Amino acid sequence: MTSTQTLAPAPTRASQPWRRVPVPHQRAIAFFVLPFGVLFTLFYALPVGYAVWQSLLVVEREGTFGAPRQVFGGLTQYAQVFQNGPFWSSVGRVLAFGVVQVPVMLALALVFALLLDSPLLRGKRFFRLAFFVPYAVPGVVAAIMWGFLYSPNLSPFTAVTGRVDLLSADLVLWAMANVVTWVYVGYNMLIIYSSLLAIPTEVYEAARLDGAGQLRIAWSIKIPLVIPAIVLTTVFSIIGTLQLLAEPQVFRSFSSAVTSTFTPNLTVYSTSSVPNFHLAAAFSVVLALATFVLSFTFLKLTQKKGVQ
């Protein structure tokens, strides 16, 4: 007579959720993450924390000619920010700028990326370089160059600039939009084009076997598969729109319509030049929070649509 013994199942991770699974190569991970952590702390976290602290201070004087001293003022600077009409007008201005400029720029970037990925296009290396070259031009240099082209007295296209004042109060914002679009289309195109190159060729072969042409493949396969890249470039563009500074700063020398509060970043710059560093820091913190809210909201909306 033989006896049988039932073996208990080995404990699994699900049956023992309280046990912490050891992570292998912890020292190697820490070694490679450390340089990023140091740079992130020194050049991002600490400056942001310093700006927040400066925004909570105010300057007081004892009497009219007393020595200034910094004291804790709580939310005093933020109260001035929310009561500052020119600042919020500049925020609305750049939001209107982004609503028009960002879709146009990304649409052009998508079209150029699809053209580069198309087997019908010849000379892809030349066009890839030609589309990207404007991004290699510094933003200040690009703004100066386009400023001369827009100026009625300096432009070689006087037939256009003599009839349409592109530096007027009504058109100067869209003249800047043209500069930003010209510079950043190639940058966004490369991101989308890299996403297109990651699509397996078997997908295209299956589509051709089903009788799909190039336009059908682009519309039904390529564009849906590069949506994550388009979302990424949109987030970058939203951040860049609210940080618009170089173009309006340069255009101030070409057009009197560009004031010191034309964009939020220009408001921060002019406020710090007074100097009023504490109010400028409060402007910066509010602008950073607005940028975060807009970017996070856009990501959440796109994620919900992707789930549906």
Note down, in words, how this protein is organized:
25% of the residues are buried. Strand 1 and strand 2 form a beta hairpin. The chain contains 13 helices and 2 strands, in the order αββαααααααααααα. Helix 3 (85-117) packs across helix 7 (172-197). The longest helix is centred in the first third of the chain and has 33 residues, at 85-117. The mean pLDDT is 88. The protein is mainly alpha-helical and 308 residues long.
Overall shape: it is flat
Q: Mean pLDDT score, rounded? A: 88
Round the Cα radius of gyration to an integer and report it.
Answer: 27 Å
| End-to-end CA span | 63 Å
Q: How many beta-strand runs? A: 2
Enumerate the strands of the largest sheet in spatial order, edge to edge or round the barrel: 1-2
SS class: mainly alpha
Low-confidence stretches: none
* N to C succession of SSEs: HEEHHHHHHHHHHHH
Biggest beta-sheet profile: 2 strands, antiparallel
State the helical fraction: 55-70%
In percent terms, what proportion of residues is strand? under 5%
- Give the number of helices: 13
Q: What's the structural blueprint in terms of helices and strands?
A:
Elements (H helix, E strand, L loop, with lengths): L25 H30 L1 E4 L8 E4 L3 H7 L2 H33 L6 H13 L2 H12 L7 H4 L10 H26 L3 H9 L4 H12 L1 H16 L3 H6 L12 H9 L4 H31 L1
Antiparallel strand pairs: 1-2
Provide a concise account of the structure shown.
With 308 residues, the protein is mainly alpha-helical.
